[in-house]
């Protein structure tokens, strides 16, 4: 999980000037200046980097995932990478 | 029907970027230069490698660095044609001293023409996808390439909440944008209109396709000259601020000109070959709309693309429309300087016409060399002339027979 997070951080840094190393769990993407359009790009970048497919938001919700903050992304990508490797 | 039943329309600002200069001041200096001086606007293509193509010239925007105008995040969402649209509009709004309150913004429209839209985005994204085995195009490919992205970007930047949309009618696109705005202003649907057109399609794939049509010059653009060899594609944008006269006067805006006549027609003939009757019908419709007799027109900024067909057909149409007055008209094509900016052409050439009315000076047709007996009007080929002019017409005749003529008069 830490390795995944370490790979995600440089991708996110392209879209925010916030200090990602000092994020609090309650810091949402919206609160650090990442809007919905940037999130579209981030999802695209994550899919390319990790060679995964992030499902549509409606499917994610059903699976209990969210895309509100850094922890959400790390959990989701970790899960999808795990599925890929199984 | 005359337009006396409607609101009068005035032009209170304009801006442009093209090979003839990156703002109106530079543009004015270039188009009013003497033909004997090479304006150095049509130059070897730098936008792509021309080694596999015969056509090696275009009218590219010079000294333009996108990063000087837009940040990295903005550039990810802006095709080159939207960049030009925003820059021309910035200048137009500044020159109009237009400040948009929420109430005014709701009574303002953005109507912006383009022939193609985000051509660079299309070619780059799909070349990577089909040619370089990239798994998929970037998701921003879609919002960048949309022909309506320029009008959207303008409305977003200035918070304009009235109608916003694109017009696309090939080389008459911005003419139709202006015409649509006039109809909306006259009927009181809006008080202010930001109109214009933008094009940025100097790309390898696009030029290969155009070259196949056998209408591109590899020499230069020589409108109405017997040895004309075709059109030269240009890039850029032109924006104008149109207002009802009442609205402009209420805010004490400077009025540069009035737009008094709009004429539109379709050849209903051929997808690339022009028909003189269609052009004639558009010019006559503009005269009727302005309630003007043909003798009132002093100057025509011609479509004058430099193709064999257009220049001959346009000349015939002018003869048929203006009859004995045709020989009294002064006609010029500024495309020899700024190139054929396709969907932006009518907006940029409207600005040329308004500048002529303001300066009481007519721009010459550059690059003319040989008399063509089928093009037998006064094309002002020797040089710029000072002339007392009251009414100027701007013509745009597009592929597919989509015609638009606009008549401007000087501010009084």
In brief:
The complex is a heterodimer of chains A (86) and B (412). By secondary structure, chain A is mainly alpha-helical.
Descriptive account of the structure:
The complex is a heterodimer of chains A (86) and B (412). With 86 residues, chain A is mainly α. Chain A has helices spanning 2-13, 36-50, 57-62, 70-85. Helices cover 34% and strands 19% of the residues of chain B. In chain B, strands 5-4-6-7-1-8-14-13-9-10 form a 10-stranded mixed β-sheet, sandwiched between helices. Chain B has a two-stranded antiparallel ribbon with strand order 2-3. In chain B, a hairpin with a 3-residue loop joins strand 13 (391-398) and strand 14 (402-410). Chain B is globular and about 65 Å long. Classes of the chains: A mainly alpha (86), B alpha/beta (412). The A-B interface holds A 37-38, 40-41, 44, 48 and B 73, 76-77, 135, 138-140.
The geometry of chain A reads as: globular
Strand content of chain B: 15-25%
Which spans of chain A have pLDDT < 50 for at least 5 consecutive residues?
none
**Largest two-chain interface:** A-B, 6 and 7 residues
> Cα distance, first to last residue of chain B?
24 Å
Biggest beta sheet attributes of chain A: none
| Tally of alpha and pi helices of chain B | 14
What Rg of chain A do the Cα atoms give? 12 Å
Rounded to an integer in angstroms, the radius of gyration calculated over CA atoms of chain B is 20 Å
Helix content of chain A: 55-70%
| Percentage of residues in helical conformation of chain B | 25-40%
- Tally of structural domains of chain A: 1
**Class derived from helix and strand content of chain A:** mainly alpha
What is the mean predicted local confidence, pLDDT of chain A? 93
What does the main sheet of chain B amount to?
10 strands, mixed
Low-pLDDT parts of chain B are none
Mean pLDDT of chain B: 96
CATH superfamily of chain A: ACP-like
């Amino acid at each position: 999980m830490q390795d995944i997070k370490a790979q995600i951080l440089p991708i996110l840094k392209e879209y925010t000037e916030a200090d990602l190393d000092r994020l609090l769990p309650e810091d949402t993407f919206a609160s650090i200046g990442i809007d919905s359009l940037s999130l579209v790009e981030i999802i695209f970048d994550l899919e390319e980097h990790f060679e995964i497919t992030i499902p549509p938001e409606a499917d994610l919700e059903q699976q209990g995932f969210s895309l509100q903050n850094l922890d959400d992304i790390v959990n989701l990508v970790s899960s999808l990478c795990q599925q890929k490797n199984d | 029907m005359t337009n006396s039943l409607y609101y009068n329309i005035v032009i209170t600002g304009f801006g442009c970027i093209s090979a003839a200069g990156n703002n109106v001041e530079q543009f004015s200096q270039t188009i009013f230069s003497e033909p004997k001086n090479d304006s150095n606007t049509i130059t070897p293509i730098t936008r792509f490698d021309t080694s596999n193509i015969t056509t090696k010239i275009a009218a590219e925007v010079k000294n333009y660095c996108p990063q000087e105008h837009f940040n990295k995040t903005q550039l990810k969402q802006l095709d080159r044609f939207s960049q030009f649209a925003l820059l021309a509009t910035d200048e137009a709004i500044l020159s109009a001293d237009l400040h948009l309150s929420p109430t005014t913004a709701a009574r303002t429209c953005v109507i912006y023409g383009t022939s193609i839209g985000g051509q660079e985005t299309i070619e780059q994204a799909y070349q990577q996808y089909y040619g370089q085995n990239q798994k998929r195009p970037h998701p921003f490919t879609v919002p960048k390439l949309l022909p309506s992205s320029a009008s959207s970007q303008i409305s977003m930047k200035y918070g304009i909440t009235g109608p916003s949309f694109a017009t696309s009618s090939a080389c008459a696109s911005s003419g139709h944008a202006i015409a649509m705005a006039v109809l909306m202003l006259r009927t009181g649907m809006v008080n202010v209109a930001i109109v214009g057109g933008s094009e940025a399609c100097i790309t390898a794939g696009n030029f290969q396709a155009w070259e196949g049509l056998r209408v591109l010059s590899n020499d230069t653009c020589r409108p109405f000259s017997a040895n004309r060899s075709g059109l030269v594609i240009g890039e850029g944008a032109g924006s104008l601020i149109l207002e009802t006269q009442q609205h402009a006067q209420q805010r004490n805006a400077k009025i540069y000109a009035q737009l008094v006549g709009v004429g539109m027609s379709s050849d209903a003939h051929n997808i690339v070959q022009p028909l003189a009757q269609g052009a004639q019908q558009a010019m006559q419709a503009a005269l009727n709309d302005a309630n003007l007799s043909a003798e009132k027109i002093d100057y025509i900024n011609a479509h004058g693309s430099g193709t064999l067909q257009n220049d001959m057909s346009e000349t015939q149409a002018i003869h048929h429309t203006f009859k004995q007055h045709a020989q009294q008209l002064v006609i010029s094509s500024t495309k020899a300087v700024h190139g054929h900016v396709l969907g932006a052409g009518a907006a940029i050439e409207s600005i040329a016409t308004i500048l002529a009315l303001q300066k009481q000076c007519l721009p010459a047709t550059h690059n003319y060399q040989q008399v063509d007996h089928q093009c037998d009007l006064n094309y002002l080929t020797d040089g710029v002339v000072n002339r007392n002019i009251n009414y100027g017409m701007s013509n745009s005749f597009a592929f597919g027979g989509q015609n638009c003529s606009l008549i401007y008069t000087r501010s009084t």
